[in-house]
Amino acid sequence: MSYTIIKVIITSVLIVAISELSKRSSLLGAFLASLPLTSVLAMLWLYIDTKDVGNVADLASNIFWLVIPSLVFFISLPVLLKKGVVFYLSMGLSMTVTAGCYLIMITLLRRHGIKL
User: Fold this and answer.
1) What is the residue-wise DSSP string for the chain?
2) Cα dist. 17→2, 30, 32, 70 in Å?
3) CA nearest to 94, candidates 63, 71, 67, 65
4) What whole-number distance in Å separates Cα of residue 114 and Cα of residue 74?
5) What is the pTM of this model?
6) pLDDT tens digit sequence for 57-99
7) Cα separation of 1 and 116, whole Å?
8) 16 pLDDT exceeds 80?
9) What is the mean pLDDT of the chain?
């Protein structure tokens, strides 16, 4: 149980650090947020928990394929905000469009024999 708490604390501190840094510099906050730190932590925790490099390799591969549709979020959100759409609606629409892109990507990958 204490190991799980340590994982939650480390991961939470990372998110808070990005948020706080972004208040001072959106560029530095974006730099830190754009690093695959969450993915690296997830792979690290997975390996520590299972010692299974196959699981880690599968996770890394799946992350690669799903990063592509996630980029839609980072395109649609600023476009909607700059067009004057309120923040929460912009977030909701961007997340919805991104979810749709995930479904499209997963469908396309399956059709081409790539199993996630």
Assistant:
1) -HHHHHHHHHHHHHHHHHHHHHHH-HHHHHHHHHSTHHHHHHHHHHHHHH--HHHHHHHHHHHHHHHHHHHHHHHHHHHHHHTT--HHHHHHHHHHHHHHHHHHHHHHHHHTT---
2) 22, 11, 9, 22
3) 71
4) 25
5) 0.75
6) 999 999 999 999 999 999 999 999 999 999 999 999 999 999 9
7) 30
8) yes
9) 92
- The torsion angle over the Cα atoms of residues 32, 30, 14 and 98, rounded to 10 degrees, is -120
Contacts with 46 (C-beta within 8 Å, 6 or more apart), sequence order:
52, 55, 56, 59
Amino acid at 5: I
The encoded tokens of residue 96 equal 């919805």
Is the separation of the CB atoms in 106 and 114 below 8 Å? no
The encoded tokens of residue 95 equal 């997340």
